[in-house]
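Usage

Read records sequentially. Each one opens with the input sequence:
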Amino acid sequence: MSALQAKDITVAFDKVRVLEDLNVEIPTGKITALVGGNGSGKTTLLRVLSRLLKPTGGTAYLDGNAIAHLPPREIARRLGILPQSPVAPEGMTVRELVAQGRYPYQTWYRQWSEEDEEMVQKALETTHLTELAERQVEHLSGGQRQRVWIAMALAQNTPILLLDEPTTYLDLAHQVEILDLLDELNAREGRTIVMVLHDLNQACRYAHHIVVLQKGTIVASGDPCEVITEELVRGAFGIECRLIADPLTGTPLCVPSMRRTNCDNCVMRTIPPKVSVS
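and closes with the structure output:
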């Protein structure tokens, strides 16, 4: 059984349904990407899975238990959550922010421990932030700040990580840096990772499992090589494309169609012949 599930989920805002009768199972120990056009319901689904949003109907489950019935501290020990565009308090250092990940383990009879210190240090090392530990978060680059937030989630030492658009507002180099880090965490530690991504090609390259949403429903899910087709991209994203095999990974690579221009300086390159991605 999957550690994280959603059954018959419906979410409505002002009687407008954002998700409708949605069912999904997140594979344990794999990277899952939630993709779809703007307004398709990706972030809403992630918020339901993390109990940040109560659904209008249906139930989300964590390890077979209805997540709505679990104590917040217990959820925080099993789910690490990175919301969209988080902001650190002014003046907080990298180490101080990462240490916030140990909050679920603090009680009146159990204060900061050697184990807490070890987990914070491990998170800093894993995300390559040791040398920046005493720097203020606000003075870091976008990619570095994202690594700090991921480090905080790692310090929670949860088997599941939920990330809402972890590469938003980052340049390409920092996007790859973050995605490579998540791929490394999954491969080395077997963590279940669920992330909302806008870039379909990155989702296909890094995810073992992909969930495609369109207008609040799931239109496809499974291995990217099996479910991503030109017809699916046309329906879910509203764009014509050619699918070819990624020359590095063999996963689907979406090349959007483009109209010819009248610009004399433009050099039109022909799209390579269609290649099977199976």
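Summary fields computed downstream for this record:
- The longest strand covers residues 16-26.
- The chain has one domain: 4-228.
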